[in-house]
Amino acid sequence: MDPAGTFATSFVRDQALIRTRWQWLALAAFLVALLIAPMFVGPRLVAIGIGIFITAVVVLGLQLNTGYSGQINLGQAAFMGVGAYTAGVLSTTFGVPFFLAIPLAGVSAALFGFIFGLSAARIKGFYLALTTIAAQFIFHFLILSLPTSWLGGSNGIIVAAPDFFGYRLSTDTHIYYLCLVVVALMTWGAYGIARSRQGRAFVAVRDDDVASGIMGINVTRTKALSFLVGAFYAGVGGALWAYYVRYVAVDQFTLIHSVWFIAMIIVGGMGSVTGALIGVVAIVLVQEGISTAGPIVAEAMPFLGGQISFAAMNIFLGGIIAAFLIFEPRGLMHRWIIMKRSYRVWPFPY
Amino acid sequence: MRDVTLRHEDGGTRSPASAQADRPDAGEALRADGITLTFGGVTALNEVSMSVKHDELVAVIGPNGAGKTSLLNCLSGFYKPQQGQIIFNGADITGKPVHEVAVMGLTRTFQGTHIFSGMTVIDNIMVGRHQHMRSSLFDAFFYPFRAREEEVQNRELVEEIIEFLEIETIRHQPVGSLGYGLRKRVDLGRALAQEPKLLLMDEPMAGMNTEEKEDLARFILDVREGKRIPVVLVEHDMGVVMDIADRVMVFDFGRKIAEGTPAQVQRDPAVLKAYLGGGAV
């Protein structure tokens, strides 16, 4: 809903993402703040920022796949892992520059995801969720069973710092800017897909696959395509992860990570690109808070033991998913829209 | 007040009835021959043949379980009949997948509501434009100028349909929040956005009050006369059927037992028997 007195006078205006001058200003200010932030904040906050960016890319993909198309995907971490390994091998073994390795990582993850998208043609809901969990195990099994000389097996692989025409992106600040550029592009893409013909086909398939068919939408193809897109995002996020950590191993991409990603879109709000971003920021910040507070609590109350962070994190994960599903099933984004509407129409009741 | 008919005729993308006059099967939009559909031991449709002419509003009536909806499901590709052939505008569509049949110009509305409840009215009707738009996933991601242009052009057509169906005030509302009558209107709008060459409607009047029925009957007549789209209507409401149909087909136990103008059908002894039982005749 637009602010009072703001009316779209053309269809171009009506479908625009940014609707008022103030929104333009706010967006510009936000981007500038993100650009200059590394100069003012400490290394820890930069690292949290990178974590948020990488997770945001992966979760945007999940949002398109699960939130928009309604295809439950518990294999997003595995798709991310495929991307991370691809980027790692391409850049370390074959010397492919990062600006090619990142999209190629997306493509390889997309192909892996597409296989599971094909199974979505025949099964849905609970059974599909189980099938995508299989993606996790197939991924682990493959990495650990292939010869160590290929993908490093259980040792993982070391990734070289990305090289930009002789300039090495070796510090966290460099990676921060790399991730910022990628996340901005991927966010733009997600908004584009969400408001386009394809995005409507995704939502149509989610809401009613019978009616989608009669609209001329190829339901099977659309479902597979949504996995393709979701996994592409995961692969790109995985590539960024590889360049950031510079070490890739299977235990970085487990089922619990996939569950966290699902939690992020539940908290943010299913079926909203902005909601996905909000969910990522909210959850990552709380995760960081818990891992910061954990050692302090453990020190103050030694009888709790040293595992307090780990335990608290899992209680938080379970609790937050349950609480949101019960009390706020449509996520923070929905709550925000209600608030926005109520202050825009105030003091009128509607 | 604007003309309520759409301007599709001069758009060139769909072929109105007049343009098809020189085709060999000029008179017929749809022809079905000897359709037999069985579910296990139950014969839902038994050797059913029918045809629909261009510019014709055909009603299909019959008691519950007569096979009306099964017939519609066969025609639109949801069921594959075991025997028989369905010819749509000269092409054999028997057993083709639903979305391919839809792209050829055969669409339908549903009994109850099969609507995309999470989307706004505009988006629902925009989904109907899906098959006429070309933007790929790649275009969607980068959203170049031509993707926006395509959106806007199709949005204009959608707005015409919104105006035609008189749902301007709810265009931005999510369909899930609308009442039943309005949902059915959106369902019709979505079908019209496809620029169909034949529209099948499965019990559009069910569950509506008199006012809503009158509105919808008016829209159906406008579709047939203004847009020259032939309509096949499955309906239980005899008043509506007798008022608006050109021709009525009566089904009972999977067979077509009578066919003719509403007046003829009303006097047909087989029809009276089917509806009122053997003793009443």
Short précis:
The complex is a heterodimer of chains A (350) and B (281). Chain A is mainly alpha-helical and 350 residues long.
Architecture overview:
The complex is a heterodimer of chains A (350) and B (281). The longest helix of chain A is centred in the last third of the chain and has 28 residues, at 273-300. The model of chain A has no long low-confidence stretch (mean pLDDT 91). Chain A is globular and about 65 Å long. Chain A has 350 residues and is mainly alpha-helical. Chain A has one domain. Chain A has helices spanning 11-14, 21-40, 43-68, 76-93, 98-120, 126-145, 148-151, 172-195, 197-207, 209-214, 219-245, 255-268, 273-300, 308-327, 331-345; strands at residues 157-158, 163-164, 167-168, 247-248. Chain A is built from 15 helices and four strands. In chain A, α4 (76-93) runs parallel beside α6, α5 (98-120) packs antiparallel against α11 and α8 packs antiparallel against α11 (219-245). Chain B is α/β, with parallel strands linked by helices and 281 residues long. Chain B has a domain at 8-117 and 198-233 and 243-276: P-loop containing nucleotide triphosphate hydrolases (Rossmann fold, 3-Layer(aba) Sandwich), CATH 3.40.50.300. In chain B, 37% of the residues lie in helices and 22% in strands. Chain B contains eleven helices and ten strands. The longest helix of chain B is centred in the middle third of the chain and has 20 residues, at 145-164.
